[in-house]
Amino acid sequence: MAPKKRTTQPVSKTVPPASAPGSLFDTASDPAPRQPENTRAPRPFIGIQFKCCSTYGRIYRNHEANAYAGNCPRCGKRVNVPIRHGGGSARFFSAG
Ligand SMILES: [Zn+2]
User: Fold this and answer.
1) Where are the annotated segments for Disordered (predicted)?
2) Residue 56: domain span
3) How far is the CA of 59 from the centre of ligand 1 (A)?
4) How many domains are there within the chain?
5) How far is the CA of 47 from the centre of ligand 1 (A)?
6) What is the share, in percent, of the chain residues with pLDDT greater than 90?
């Protein structure tokens, strides 16, 4: 199992130790992982290789939730990848 590198969380609060009666350091014993993606309903996307420009990008699901649609980040060519139910779990596509 490969160790996942967690993204470093930005320090949002700097609390002076003098005003914190030891309670802050208890968080070290709580290993519950926080997933920043769960803060809001994420919009599904897929990684895609644009053949037209040999570049990589991501496209997002459309409103109908039946396809992923987007544009090539370089030339703006529109791509459309239909979502196939039960058609495997491929997460990487190519188009263009
Ligand atoms: Zn392109």
Assistant:
1) 1-42
2) 42-96
3) 13
4) 1
5) 15
6) 35
Q: According to the model, what pLDDT value does residue 93 have?
A: 77
Rg (CA), the chain: 21
Note whether residue 36 is domain-resident: no
For residue 67, tell me if it sits in a domain. Answer: yes
The closest alpha carbon to 61, from 77, 48, 45, belongs to 45
Q: Looking at the domain assignment, is residue 48 inside a domain?
A: yes
Q: Residue 65 in 3-state DSSP?
A: coil
Q: What is the pTM of this model?
A: 0.50
pLDDT digits (tens, 9 = 90+) for 53-90: 999 999 999 999 899 999 999 999 999 998 876 655 56
Is 73 contained in some domain?
yes
Q: Position of tokens 């990589």?
A: 56
Least confident interval from 36-40, 55-59, 91-95: 36-40
Query: What stretches of 4-86 show up as alpha helix (H) in DSSP?
Result: none
CA 77 to centroid of ligand 1, rounded, Å: 6
